[in-house]
Write the structure tokens for this entry.
Amino acid sequence: MNALLTDLYELNMVASYMRRGMNGQATFSLFVRRLPVTRGFLVTAGVESCLDFLEGLRFEERDLDYLRDQRQFNSSDLEAFRRLRFTGDVWAIPEGRIAFAGEPLIEVTAPLTEAQLIETFLLNQVTFETTIASKAARCVIAAAGRDLVDFSFRRTQGIEAGLDVARLSAMVGFGATSNVEAARLHGLVVAGTMAHSYVEAFSSQAGAFRAFAEDFPGRATFLVDTYDTIAGVKDAIAVIKQLSLAGPLGIRLDSGNLDDLARRGRKLLDSAGLSHVRILASGGLDELEIDALVRAGAPIDAFGVGTKMGVSADYPYLDTAYKLVRYADRPVMKLSRGKVTAPGRKQVFRRRRPFGDLVGLFEEAAPARHESLMEPLMIGGRRTEAQAAVAESRRRFEDDYSILPAAARDLRSPRPPSVRFSPALRKLSTDTQRELMSKLGPHGHPTGSLKT
Amino acid sequence: MNALLTDLYELNMVASYMRRGMNGQATFSLFVRRLPVTRGFLVTAGVESCLDFLEGLRFEERDLDYLRDQRQFNSSDLEAFRRLRFTGDVWAIPEGRIAFAGEPLIEVTAPLTEAQLIETFLLNQVTFETTIASKAARCVIAAAGRDLVDFSFRRTQGIEAGLDVARLSAMVGFGATSNVEAARLHGLVVAGTMAHSYVEAFSSQAGAFRAFAEDFPGRATFLVDTYDTIAGVKDAIAVIKQLSLAGPLGIRLDSGNLDDLARRGRKLLDSAGLSHVRILASGGLDELEIDALVRAGAPIDAFGVGTKMGVSADYPYLDTAYKLVRYADRPVMKLSRGKVTAPGRKQVFRRRRPFGDLVGLFEEAAPARHESLMEPLMIGGRRTEAQAAVAESRRRFEDDYSILPAAARDLRSPRPPSVRFSPALRKLSTDTQRELMSKLGPHGHPTGSLKT
């Protein structure tokens, strides 16, 4: 693992801290400042790849050579970089759980240099993966029990992103992915049919369907919209009859008015005695279009969802922050306008019924009928348990989702449950802010106001 | 390189083609169907990583083992996969050039199986990289000569995406990146200052600034908004004077009303005789906000641009397609509603003055005063030249940008120049469509109409 996967300013700060012996225990809190208006909840993800990164964190010789050549750092800085490992603790809400803005998703407690160096990597992974998992969960809500297949690989923001999207969509309930390498890596169900080019490569559409069915008799889904969709459905029916195909069969609609075409296709199939042939719809779908189709009662059995889920097209990032909340036994906070952070090491407590989250101080005991969401996933630089399998994270998601208030699940105007701060956390915030303001002296006063 | 970085349907089709000996020469065309309304042009990117992928394309034993275990393919399919290499030609518009919707960015001519297998990877890379390069170019337009620094790494869609964004933003004119590994890999200028946590880790802001300036006297930029921005500017001025700092110096504003704070900060600096101290602004900026600040005359010398550029927040993908246009010496096309493709192998011809692009057939000679944009970057599976350096792609961008009509550069309501089709291409389209319609027979007629 490569310690240069960071921003230069992290290295500046680490070098400066090392020169000054400022390496007391620090706690940084990673959280989402506020949710996009179309998100009623977050599905946490990304911490597992952060743990991998932390376990392997080190500067390789080529990294040190590069920094030496840049003349940004002196030889004792480089020597300190060479020795640096991550030795700290990571408490986090495990992957797949539902969380909200203002709740720490991860808190890192480590010597200041180590905890600072890793900021960029942690933000990157948690922001991206939580963004995608939360978006994919909206598709699952919209599909209302119909099957979902991840078709995003061709338009994700890179190959690594595509592999992650397949895993994250499976975590929240997608049944399969088209992405072969992701399926191999993560043990997912892989699915796929044919492209328009396949139909075009044959001299007739019926010929293409016949060839495909002969080659894959156990899993033929016919793409029917290359030329004319209804003609395509009729060609598919003819081939199914001609070859007396059994096994799972389907047709795929990829363009046009999917509701209308699904109804007409269903009618043709049913009239031909093929009520067991499924209809798969795809083509630029997002959760709102899926929701509309489902509510309209379109006879679609499965949706292929690609780009708009795979890049979280309506909101392709989250407003995440990684903030120092405690250093050398004192709480710290930032007062920048609109970006005030709550000080101190924390814990998140959840009551299942009625559903409610409370952010408190790390030292506080869980109130009655509340569970603690943050768990010690790394102690002293080592994982406390093996990486969670997708199935395990999926169980966590399903369990949390089962108790999530309906208002938070609404796709168009969701209302996330309010997250309360404990009296002890509120008092620490007030006290810390007062102390900071008194220290700012004659130059001015903080411009932000504390949000709780 | 891993041939499983693809969608299952590609493998289905490849296996089917192999069983049938359908492996004639095919040409696939990769293009953007239509531009987002806020894009007046595209900056091409992604082909270089595609060429790397194609040179190394092969199924490894673990890939074949996986496919065998899945029982999706028989043993002769697997043997054919094992032997598969990419042996074809790739003609493409080189990275950094300006292009438009409807123009082939890449055309692959190869045996059908090879050309089909690679679809997913090529679409992924070209879509993502062209999306980002085109977005970053808008920031360069907005900055109107002021410096730009890529700050996106913490919120890109993965680590690989972050490394690419740094390179692509440099390609269109960003002066530096905060991303250390990207700078090392691609020879970019790396830049960085300090985080709010640095200020908070000291017992006073002035103390933090003094420490930083002592440690990096040659490159101190002070982040002034941790508590109160104007107080921060005053602390920075005091430290600069106290330590008699020379060398490049700056202050960074990261929140609040940047226009107002920049003016007040500039006044304070100038009054203190520090007119050489630069002002860097950051904090959720996109090209429209940069444009507004520049037009308002805010005294900002450089902009740090992060998330919104790094994920292309307003439009995080492009409507790309990879379509079979020719197989076994006959032109082919798709007629799906709204997705009609133009048949045949092509070339793009550009006239510089007056600016105008013409898409023609591959065999056509360039019209007078036109240059051919597509170049043979790979012949017989081997690159024709070494990977282009960022600086070379940047020269291409600057050259094309210098002749781009002003209407296409507009940030809010851009009008891309119209792309014409040559008479020969129009005739081939009409003829192919007519032939396809006559073949569809009694089942129906194509529902799309040809767009030229």
Observations:
- Chain B touches chain A through 111 residues (CB under 8 Å).
- The longest strand of chain B covers residues 25-32.
- Residues 246 and 359 of chain B are 56 Å apart (CA to CA).
- The first helix of chain B runs from residue 8 to 19.
